[in-house]
Design goal:
Length: 286
């Protein structure tokens, strides 16, 4: 029996409808429209495509989108000044600085410059600290938050379950571990130095792939009936594939996200939801 397909594209479409309705209510109540600003330094083609997708998503939801582009040679101080100006701009509710940045610009410095109240992708250390503590009001990174939304809306039980995450990045693996832990899963994080990785992965009721290696997670990594969340985005022979060998895995897993069409469509939806939340919080303070 093949796994249930966790259709992120369909879930994203449902959430988009909810957000469109909420934006209309917001506009009626406050008289203005929530919006995001994206800062892009340089013209990396992959980054440009992603930024274009963000803009399209926001505009289709009736929200505003502002793109600030800077030359790759732009100095760090200038980027900091731009982010500070966006922090002070009441028309901007969410701020994203597209990564990776050129090598001469510190990602840590820029992340720390974004106002935590507008940090809708959860990269400021303040938000990261609150996420780790599971306390206060914070924004978690959009990609793992989208994965959690798939689990929630697909009826996958989390509390009391064993979760194994393959990958320990600050943008997916670590925050996903925190989010699962806060919902009472027992969490193990694996990485390149984990011994007998397949054996550890097979203990998972919820297996999360965020390692960045095409089709690395094969069927023998998967406990029969497990839910598999694949965050991988890899190009192989001109096709986008995940970190999970989907064809082999779907015969063992109980539920699985496809690539494309799984976790990918959820990221922009969470960015919109977070921006709307930031706008509501700002409006209540006015």
């Amino acid at each position: 029996m093949e796994a249930d397909i966790l259709d992120g594209k369909a879930i994203a479409a449902t959430m988009k409808g909810e957000i469109v309705a909420e934006v209309a209510v917001f506009k009626e109540k406050f008289g203005w429209v929530p919006g995001i600003a994206v800062v892009q330094v340089g013209a990396d083609p992959a980054s440009s495509r992603y930024v274009k997708q963000i803009g399209k998503s926001f505009e289709e939801a009736g929200m505003t989108f502002r793109l600030e582009t800077l030359d790759e040679s732009t100095g760090q101080d200038e980027v900091v000044r731009l982010v500070q100006s966006l922090n002070a701009d009441r028309a901007v509710n969410g701020i994203i600085v597209q990564m990776p940045l050129p090598k001469h610009i510190s990602q840590d410095v820029i992340a720390s410059t974004i106002s935590p109240a507008k940090d809708v992708d959860g990269i400021n250390p303040v938000n990261a600290g609150y996420l780790l503590a599971g306390a206060g009001s914070y924004f978690a990174p959009a990609t793992p938050s989208g994965g959690m939304e798939i689990l929630h809306r697909s009826g996958v039980e989390i509390a009391g379950k064993r979760a194994v995450i393959v990958g320990r990045s600050n943008i997916v693996g670590k925050p996903m571990a925190c989010l699962l832990l806060h919902e009472h899963a027992t969490v193990t994080i694996c990485h390149s130095r984990t011994k007998d990785l397949a054996a550890v992965a097979r203990e998972a009721d919820i297996l999360v792939a965020a390692i960045g290696k095409a089709r690395m997670i094969t069927a023998d990594f998967i406990k029969p009936g497990a839910a598999v969340i694949d965050f991988g985005i890899n190009v192989v022979d001109g096709k986008v594939v995940g970190d999970v060998d989907f064809e082999g895995a779907k015969g063992v897993a109980g539920a699985i996200t496809p690539v494309p069409g799984g976790t990918g469509p959820m990221t922009n939806i969470v960015l919109m939801r977070n921006t709307l939340r930031a706008a509501n919080e700002a409006a209540e303070l006015k």
